[in-house]
Every structure is written in structure tokens, then in C-alpha cells.
Inverse folding.
């Protein structure tokens, strides 16, 4: 196009997702030549192009490293390098580029060693010589950290190198956006090392959010004793290097998996860490080497009942490696008896607190079963934590948040501040407040392993909403949750939450007093029951005429009649079997089976006037009423069996009506204890569900429908839904959860 330019000072621009090039006309020996260079060569208006060498200041963060290196790979492919050699060369170029950026990071206006040599007139031979020097030094500097030996012999010839550096030299890898680096790395490392990268990585929005709350400060040392791919450490490093380019010296990672260490090292290098402190070590076995060493601990430990530690020499280093027994004062005491095994996740909780300095802070991801399960095993863990640390915040994540890495559990982030000294009883503690958040939207499809991003859209036309950088905005709750937490009353008790941040009044902030936890005999820390949605709902309902579920119904144990008699299945009898999936909101279907055909999960022998409702998180909205004409009905497990008390039968319309509301579902889901869709609700918790009372007029209006329900001729759900919509019943129903993965 410049051949058609009338004015020889005309410049041309080329711009795609990788190349940003400027073209200009040069007259050499009275001959017209078209030259090109990186976009940084664009001159001020009215001036001629000057071929200034690239500096750290003039190179720009890459917008798409994946496409950039795919184009470089195409050049290598055309040069007849096989697949293995191509990736070896790419790794050499990558290390050399990172090395070069680091050496000029504090000399931002001095020329880099790696240049677009063709643009500044360097011969292919001289370009090769300069590049070989950088590659040799970079390989020497980084090779000790990487999994495989790297050759320092650069196989590219000068002409090939000029083509590659036109693409590579103008970009800045170490300051590219986090998701740009991770997307590239997951493919690059998979192709180079044949690793399954998905099992290592935590989505960047989660790690950035976790680190944002824990708020590491200048000079503080941050560690992860089970670092995996070092995603939390990368987030901390990228946050703090804005204030200290050498912050990598304060970042420490440990993992006993050689593959994880190698993944972590390369991840840190790509994100700008020129000197890594990632080491292979056994954090559990060598915990005493790191006692009270770090200011901030982040951790997403391996957890699960089958992931256990059995080594006696390891278990004996931990309080939670021993058996505990309940004392007369209702506190657990450690015995001298060593456990045969302990869950690794539980030992990592103790590891984090041991390695943290007094007054330091910890962010650890734990399954909700650890936080709410009523068994002594987990009650002991919670008591142990509460005596050694204060809870600053608990933030729940939706189910399937970590499905892309193979975890199918509901988990929460526990933020702790280590106490200066252990308290003996909770009466010794002063009452403080901690923040509680329930994240609903994480910004990606949490229900599948691909974890495709979900962006905010204009509700009128579906168009993407763009930020100031021109990027689509993830549709997630993380930023708003951070704002609520740092502006909550919890920040008055934990000053580090809003240290060096601007604050303002946020009416949506939510926190509760630690006395609510201490008053609970189970010391429940599951955030579902302390979240704003459920607590405000229960507070509103408690101020109106109401009863508790346990006041109006009797819970009937499994495999017995309503009068307490035991009952057994007759193998030859025909039964009408109701499974959990056969129950809807007020109705049910059943199938005929002989007694010998019934599965072992049959737990209830139904009688007319029985009320069944789900006893697990995933089925909290399911309920049905057994009509008077039903016979030989058996019901699966996963349900409570209740009967209205004789003296409370006039409140049957109140109970059956409220079973159709979102308020019922929210209360029941908040009481569930566990880490998956089978998280159970115990009778004691279900008994405390608040049932608002209907007016006499509404009760009379609904009664004909109840009578029909008792004869098995209609369902109540649609009728009550219409009354809720028209505000004819005063239920204070909260909004419905946006998807099935949201916890309450």
C-alpha cells in the first residue's frame, strides 16, 4: 500500500492478534525501500521513524501467548525441525526472553539484549551471536530448577532467528495477564512434558481472590506447604511485585511430588519469578524445620477420607495425630495414644498453624465436611483450630468449583489469624466478629471439567460487558465479596483485612460474632448456616407468629411403625416403592416390586398421613404426603419421615404450605452437613426449621386443597406458589438460587 503513497513520510500499520508492525519508506542511494519494525517505532506526529532499540519500557505485555508461540512453532516447522526439537527451541527462547526481561526490569530505558534485529539493521550472523550468548546464560541460570536437561546450543540459523524475533522481541512475557500466561502454560507444558496439567491448576480468579483477602504486605514471607502448581504463590508474587520487584525472595513453596515441583517452578518463571524458592520436601514429615517461619500461609491441601498418613514418626509430631477424649468440662483432651492413621488434610491444617508466626495469618481451602460434620473426629479439629487461631472470615464456594481438577466437593476458604498463645477455654476469649460470604457465581461453568468462562452480558441484548482494558468481565462474585469483607465489622477486629486499602460503608457487608460458634455444642464452622441469606430469613421469621418444626411433628425412626413397632420386609409381598427421584414438591410416583426385589436403601414403611421430605442437601425441596387410601408403600433413605402431632393437626396446612417455599429450602440446605450432594441434615437441626403461621383466613382457604391431598386427588404446590407470588402468604421468601450448584 505504501507504493501508492504520494508523501514519502507516510507510514503504514499492520495489526493482528500477534503482530503489531509499523512500515515506512526509506530512501537509500536514491532507491525507495519499504522497511518495517515493532509498533514502538511509531514516531510523534510529523516526525520520521527512528529505529530505536527495544527497551523494557517499550515492549508490551502479550495478549495471547498461546497464539504467539504457535506462530513461532509454525516458523520452526517450516524450517524442518521435528516436534521434539521445536519444543526444545521454544523452551530455550522462553527462558532467554524471561532472563532478558529480568536483567533490565530496573533499567527500563536501556536497550534489551533480545531485539527485533532485522528492524535495527543487525546482520543475521551478528543476531545469532548475540542470541547464543543470552541463551547460554539463561540456560545456566534456570536449568537447575527445571525437570529435564536443556541444551544451550541454539539450532536456529541467523535468518530463522530474525523471523522468530520479529514476533518474540516486542512482547513482555513476565508482565502478561495471569490468565494469558496460564492458558499458554497449560498447553505448552502438556506438549513439552506430557503432563496432565488440569490436575494441578486452580482457576486464577479463585487464587487471586484468596490472596486478595489475605492481603500480603511488603516484606512479608508467604508460603504454601502443599503448593502443587504454585498458583497461590504466583497470585501473591504478582500482587506484591508492584511494590517490590524482588518479592520472589519472599515466596516459598513446598511439595513432595517431583512433577508438582516442576510444574510450580516453570509456572513461577513464566509469571516473572527470576529466583524461585520452590523446593521438593515432605512438609508433613519435616514440619519442625519450618516452625513459626512465615507471615502468611496459603494452602489447598489434598483432602479426603482415603488420603491418609500412616507413618508413626510423622503422626507423633502432630496433636491431631493422637487420639482425643472428651473431658468433664466438655473440652477434648489429647491422650498418649497414637492414631493408626489420620487424614492428610487434617494434618495440613496443623502444619499451616505450626508454620505460621504468632499474629500471622492463614488462608486454607477445606471441604465443608471438616467444618460441619458432627462426628468427634471433626469436632476435635474445629476445637483445636479455635483455641489456636481466630476466624477472620469463612467463604464458601459452590459445589463443583474444583471439578476441572477432579474434585467433586463443596469447599470453603477458612481465613485464620494465629493467636499469640493458646486459650484453654472459650470463656477465656473475647468476642470478636468474622465475615461470612457464600459465593454463587465463580465466572466459569463449574459443572464440567472444561470450566469454560462465563462473562457478564447486557440483559437487554446479550452483548458482552467490557472493562477499561477492552476485555470481557467475568460474571463472578469475587470482587464484590472482597469489597464486602474489607468493609465489614470483621475488619474492625482484624486490621490486616483492609490495611493499605481504601474503605467505605457497604450496607451489604455481613459478619457474625464468634459467640454463635461457641454456643453451638458442635462448634459448627460451615458458612452455610451463618450466611446473610439464611440468618436474615430466620431473623425475620422469628419475629412473626411461628412454630419450630420439632414442635409440631414427630420424627419416626427407620423401619418401624408410627406406634414404635419394628417391621420387616416380606419377601413375597408386593410393595409400592418410592425412590428419592420419584418425589417432587407434594407429589410422588411409585413402582410395584416384590419384597425380594426391593433395594437395601428401603428404610421407611409408610402409613397414611405420613409426611416425607428430603434429608440431604440435594433433595431439600422434595416432599410428599401419604394419602388415606395408600397401602403397602415403602420409601427410600434420604428422607425424613414425620407425622403431625395430634395436638398440632390444625397446623397441617401451615406445614404443608411452607414446604413449597424457597424459605423452607434455604433453611434445610443451610443445615446440611457434608461436602457433597449427599450432605445430610440431622433431626436436631431439622427440628429448628422455623415454620411461619398462616392467618385463619388463609388456612381456611387452603383447607379444601389439604383435604383433597389427603384423598390423593391433587397437589398443593401450584396453589401455594400462586399465593407466594401474590404475597397472600407472608413467607419473606428469599430469591431462588441461580443454579443447582449454589449451596443455599
Amino acid at each position: 500500500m505504501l507504493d501508492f503513497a504520494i508523501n514519502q513520510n507516510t507510514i503504514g500499520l499492520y495489526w493482528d492478534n500477534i503482530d503489531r508492525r509499523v512500515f515506512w519508506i526509506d530512501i537509500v542511494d536514491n532507491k525507495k525501500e519499504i522497511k518495517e519494525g515493532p509498533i514502538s517505532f511509531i514516531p510523534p506526529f510529523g516526525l520520521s521513524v527512528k529505529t530505536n532499540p527495544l527497551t523494557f519500557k517499550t515492549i508490551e505485555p502479550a495478549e495471547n501467548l498461546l497464539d504467539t508461540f504457535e506462530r513461532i512453532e509454525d516458523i520452526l516447522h517450516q524450517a524442518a525441525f521435528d516436534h521434539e526439537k521445536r519444543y526444545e527451541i521454544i523452551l530455550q527462547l522462553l527462558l532467554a526472553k524471561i532472563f532478558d526481561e529480568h536483567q533490565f526490569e530496573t533499567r527500563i530505558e536501556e536497550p534489551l539484549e533480545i531485539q527485533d534485529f532485522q528492524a535495527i539493521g543487525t546482520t543475521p550472523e551478528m543476531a545469532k551471536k548475540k542470541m547464543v550468548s543470552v541463551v547460554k546464560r539463561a540456560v545456566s541460570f534456570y536449568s537447575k530448577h527445571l525437570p529435564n536437561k536443556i541444551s544451550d546450543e541454539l539450532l536456529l540459523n541467523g535468518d530463522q532467528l530474525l523471523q522468530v524475533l520479529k514476533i518474540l522481541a516486542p512482547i513482555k512475557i513476565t508482565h502478561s495477564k495471569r490468565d494469558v500466561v496460564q492458558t499458554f502454560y497449560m498447553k505448552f507444558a502438556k506438549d513439552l512434558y506430557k503432563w496432565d496439567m488440569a490436575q494441578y491448576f486452580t482457576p486464577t480468579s479463585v487464587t487471586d481472590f484468596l490472596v486478595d483477602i489475605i492481603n500480603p504486605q511488603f516484606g512479608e514471607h508467604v508460603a504454601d506447604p502443599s503448593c502443587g502448581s504454585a498458583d497461590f504463590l504466583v497470585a501473591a508474587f504478582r500482587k506484591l511485585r508492584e511494590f517490590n520487584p524482588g518479592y520472589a525472595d519472599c515466596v516459598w513453596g513446598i511439595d513432595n511430588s517431583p512433577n508438582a515441583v516442576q510444574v510450580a517452578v516453570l509456572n513461577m518463571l513464566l509469571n516473572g519469578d527470576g529466583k524461585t524458592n520452590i523446593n521438593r520436601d515432605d512438609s508433613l514429615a519435616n514440619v519442625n524445620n519450618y516452625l513459626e517461619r512465615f507471615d502468611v500461609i496459603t494452602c489447598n491441601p489434598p483432602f479426603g477420607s482415603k488420603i491418609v498418613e500412616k507413618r508413626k514418626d510423622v503422626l507423633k509430631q502432630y496433636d491431631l495425630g493422637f487420639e482425643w477424649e472428651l473431658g468433664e468440662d466438655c473440652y477434648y483432651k489429647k491422650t498418649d495414644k497414637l492414631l493408626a492413621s489420620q487424614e492428610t488434610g487434617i494434618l495440613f491444617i496443623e502444619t499451616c498453624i505450626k508454620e505460621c508466626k504468632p499474629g500471622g495469618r492463614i488462608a486454607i481451602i477445606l471441604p465443608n465436611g471438616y467444618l460441619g460434620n458432627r462426628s468427634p473426629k471433626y469436632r476435635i479439629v474445629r476445637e483445636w483450630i479455635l483455641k489456636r487461631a481466630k476466624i477472620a472470615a469463612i467463604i464458601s464456594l459452590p459445589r463443583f468449583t474444583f471439578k476441572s481438577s477432579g474434585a467433586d466437593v463443596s469447599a470453603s476458604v477458612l481465613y485464620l489469624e494465629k493467636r499469640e498463645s493458646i486459650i484453654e477455654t472459650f470463656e477465656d476469649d473475647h468476642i470478636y466478629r468474622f465475615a461470612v460470604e457464600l459465593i454463587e457465581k465463580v465466572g466459569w461453568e463449574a459443572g464440567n471439567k472444561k470450566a469454560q468462562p462465563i462473562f457478564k452480558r447486557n440483559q437487554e441484548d446479550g452483548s458482552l460487558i467490557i472493562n477499561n482494558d477492552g476485555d470481557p468481565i467475568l460474571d463472578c462474585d469475587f470482587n464484590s465479596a472482597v469489597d464486602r469483607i474489607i468493609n465489614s465489622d470483621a475488619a474492625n477486629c482484624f486490621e490486616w483485612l483492609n490495611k493499605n486499602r481504601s474503605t467505605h460503608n457497604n450496607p451489604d457487608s455481613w459478619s457474625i460474632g464468634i459467640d454463635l460458634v461457641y454456643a453451638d455444642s458442635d462448634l459448627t464452622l460451615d458458612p452455610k448456616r451463618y450466611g446473610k441469606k439464611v440468618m436474615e430469613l430466620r431473623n425475620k421469621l422469628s419475629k412473626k407468629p411461628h412454630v419450630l418444626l420439632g414442635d409440631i411433628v414427630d420424627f419416626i425412626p427407620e423401619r418401624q411403625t408410627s406406634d414404635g413397632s419394628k417391621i420387616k420386609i416380606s419377601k413375597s409381598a408386593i410393595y409400592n416403592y418410592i425412590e428419592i427421584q420419584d418425589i417432587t414438591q407434594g407429589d410422588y410416583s411409585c413402582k410395584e416390586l416384590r419384597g425380594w426385589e426391593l433395594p437395601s436403601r428401603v428404610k421407611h414403611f409408610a402409613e397414611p398421613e405420613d409426611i416425607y421430605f428430603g434429608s440431604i442437601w440435594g433433595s431439600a425441596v422434595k416432599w410428599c404426603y401419604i394419602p388415606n387410601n395408600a397401602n403397602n408403600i415403602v420409601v427410600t433413605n434420604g428422607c425424613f419421615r414425620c407425622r403431625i402431632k395430634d395436638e398440632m393437626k390444625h397446623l397441617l396446612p401451615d406445614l404443608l404450605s411452607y414446604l413449597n417455599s424457597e424459605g423452607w429450602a434455604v433453611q434445610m440446605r443451610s443445615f446440611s452437613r457434608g461436602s457433597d450432594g449427599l450432605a445430610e441434615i440431622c433431626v436436631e437441626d431439622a427440628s429448628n426449621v422455623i415454620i411461619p403461621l398462616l392467618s385463619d383466613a388463609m388456612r381456611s382457604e387452603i383447607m379444601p386443597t389439604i383435604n383433597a391431598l389427603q384423598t390423593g386427588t391433587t397437589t398443593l404446590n401450584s396453589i401455594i406458589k400462586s399465593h407466594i407470588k401474590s404475597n397472600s402468604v407472608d413467607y419473606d421468601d428469599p430469591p431462588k438460587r441461580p443454579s443447582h450448584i449454589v449451596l443455599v
Summary: Residues 83-103 form the longest helix (21 residues). The CA atoms of residues 251 and 500 lie 20 Å apart. The first strand starts at residue 11 and ends at 15. The chain has a mean pLDDT of 90.
